[in-house]
């Protein structure tokens, strides 16, 4: 299930980069957008906005331990961390922490962070946006492309 959460986040992050226009798929041509195979993947995928962002996170005992406020995409464009608000009041976060996406699971319709408690999350270092780039690295500057 952990790979499903990671795949959901990666696929949903990719959706934000796609155009809302639809194009006819022509054999041997690749229009801007997605291929037929990729379209199928999109249809079968999940949306970060609808399925993850601002959704509660529970531990394996069903206790709510936080809310997912953001997803961090690494320079290589992989989804790396979920930003979880351990404490919030009226939707305003008071203690955000970064949790590796691999630690999250999806079970029985809920996002699960095994072994977590509110106290354990509050004890983690606070995540600070000032240390995170606001814009992605251009593909040409990334060594793997």
Automatic annotation (TrEMBL):
Keywords assigned by UniProt? Signal
Recorded superkingdom: Bacteria
Task: Provide the PRC-barrel domain boundaries.
Answer: 51-113
Q: Which residues form the signal peptide?
A: 1-24
Q: Does the keyword Transport apply?
A: no
**Keyword Signal among UniProt keywords:** yes
Full protein name? PRC-barrel domain-containing protein
Lineage of origin: Bacteria, Pseudomonadati, Pseudomonadota, Betaproteobacteria, Burkholderiales
């Amino acid at each position: 299930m952990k790979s499903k959460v990671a795949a959901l986040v990666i696929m949903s992050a990719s959706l934000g980069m796609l155009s809302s226009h639809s194009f006819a798929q022509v054999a041997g041509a690749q229009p801007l957008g997605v291929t037929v195979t990729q379209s199928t993947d999109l249809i079968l995928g999940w949306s970060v906005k609808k399925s993850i962002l601002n959704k509660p996170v529970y531990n394996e005992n069903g206790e709510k331990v936080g809310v997912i406020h953001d997803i961090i995409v690494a320079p290589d464009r992989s989804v790396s961390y979920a930003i979880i608000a351990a404490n919030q009041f009226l939707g305003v976060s008071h203690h955000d922490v970064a949790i590796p996406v691999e630690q999250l699971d999806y079970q029985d319709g809920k996002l699960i962070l095994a072994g977590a408690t509110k106290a354990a999350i509050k004890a983690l270092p606070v995540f600070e946006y000032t240390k995170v780039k606001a814009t992605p690295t251009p593909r040409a500057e990334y060594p793997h492309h």
